[in-house]
Fold:
Amino acid sequence: MDIVQVVISGILLGGVYTLFATGLNLIFGVMKIINLGHGELMMLGAYITFFLSTSAGVNPLVSIPVAAIAMAVLGWILQFALVERVVNQPAINSLLLTFGLSTLMMGVALNLWTSNFRSVIYEPLTGSWTILTISFSRSRLVAFFIAILVTGGMWLFLKRSTFGKSIRATSQHPQVAQLCGIDVRQVRFATFALGSAMAAVSGSLIAMIFTVSPEMGRMFIGKGFAIIVLGGLGSFAGAFLGALILGVSETLTAFFTNTQIAEGVAYLILLLVLVVRPSGLFGKAEE
Amino acid sequence: MSASKVNRRELMRRAAILGVSVPAMSALLAAEAGAQATPAGTVAAAPTGDPIRIGASVSTTGTNGRTGLYQQEAYLLWEAQKNASGGLLGRPVEMVLYDDQSDPTTGARLYERLITEDQVDLVMGPYASGVTQAVAQITERYGYPLLVAGASANSIWESGFRAIFGVYSVAGDYFKDIITTIAPAQDYKTAAVIYEDAVFPMSTGQGAVTTLQDQGIEVVLEESYPQKATDVSSVLTKIRDLDPDMLIGGSYLPDSVLIVRQAKELGLNPRLYAFSVGAAQPDFVETLGADANYVLGPSMWEPEIETEGNADFMAAYQQMWDRDPDYHSATGYAGCQILERAVTNVGELDLEALAEALSSLTMNTILPGEYRVDETGKQIGHIPLTVQWQDGQKIIVAPEDQQTGELNLPTPPWDERS
Structure:
């Protein structure tokens, strides 16, 4: 029974990772940019939920769309003002830029809100639901479903809507997409905004599960990167599955060895994938 | 010989510059702190002569910036009080302060600079174990006795230093009272100990394991987890099967919160929870709400304790800084009290004699217990308080003479809590 519990915990942990990783991968897919500031966008989303719920008494679940919209706007501005300049440039430029953004946002947050750890107390979501002696953490289960809802919605949007198709087209072949009359610049703006919004939603959820601090983004960016490499760079479904695989591998490893070793699993997976199947589970091999 | 002459001339030059600024500053501060610090009816003689310069670097920015600031404020409060009440050895006191940005290497460099370039007369300790460990190498090399007012990792006193003196209990003793007094009284026989893989929390966790074994309490599980862990459900699932009486966490605030939350989610029900740091901080109850109840933790100091001068310290601190001190302020202030006593006893600024005095001194500070160190300089006289959250209030449950309420154990299972 313990094993089932551990696997469930792992899936729920994976749910926490999914939103973060799919947003990161969406941006990579379209722009071939690893956004190192993704963790900080998540952190800002978490703070929005924290301040809205503690100062304004807003239900933390209600604060999620607010955080998403706010970060989408910030994402759009960042793309417009900065990131757009490094698209199609050597990778080092975008890495430096987004690393700079990451440090800047973290520094500003440290200055404004101190390095205090905060958390949102939302009573209905503490504790767990128990089914047949298996505990389902309420906060993580709710986060899991919201994550599935958002990533699923995003997936449908990409699959069905015209604009979603433009995004996929740009992701697959920007030049051809442009020739077909797609405004790829506009697509990039929208993608960065959407990716940022997904980071914000994951931050809002984490605020209810874990603690909020300016440095929280750094806890997730490394794992986020491992997940998208595992799932396949640019692959939306891959990031989703990669997140679940990582979550379960971590909890199982922690159960059979210890939590210390489990922390390294992400990087071990990263290494293995790079050696065995560099394109990841769902990625397409480069020419 | 000639080198020392140059140094002396340089000192004179600096003193001349400071001669302008120090009295002016003390006058200002005296106006503020004087009424508080000087008992009515007595007029302290104004300090005269060259100031005694005391150097320190404290993290006021970076990861530990917020906590470090408390320690620095305590140093400055003590400086203001001394200058308003006759100074030290009749001379004004000047704190020479830098910010090490929470970085050990920077801290070490700054103490080197304080000693060799600024040529301060004395030094006080920095904040946090990592920085202190690095700084101790420097102060030891130059023969400056160091009062460790902001660190407690055992390893600091395991390096064979001669003149590094602890102000409060070492990390390994944080759970001593809980394990040797509270656990036997409750007849607890088993414990699980988990701790974060960093110098300080690991010291507290491993110290707990040693104490538990000495006490004859079985340690059913000992495991470390990485810094910044976001999930400890697997180890807690293992602990749930072992059903120990006590769950002890060598942890900071975020992981203490994480452990309690996931313990609740998994229905893990030890009779006693104790965490090394998070539990004593007000943020703990703010992040956990009612789930913080019953949790125990050691605390180096609490605002309401009745130690010598504590009430005055509280009042003066609030007046000068417009906020309440936290325990880092208290340990910083206690460090200054100890230095002051040692200097007064020696009667001059002889570093050798000061180190000697600090190693044999016994005195009361605003901290509970007393200042007393063993032959390695490790603090052994300080008595950490044990606090417990009860209905959202932090209650001091041990030691007996500082109690503000009764201990409330065992912790009821999660599903029996309202």
Notes: Chain B touches chain A through 37 residues (CB under 8 Å). The longest helix of chain B spans residues 2-37. The radius of gyration of chain B is 23 Å. Chain B has two domains: 2-169+304-360, 173-299+384-416.
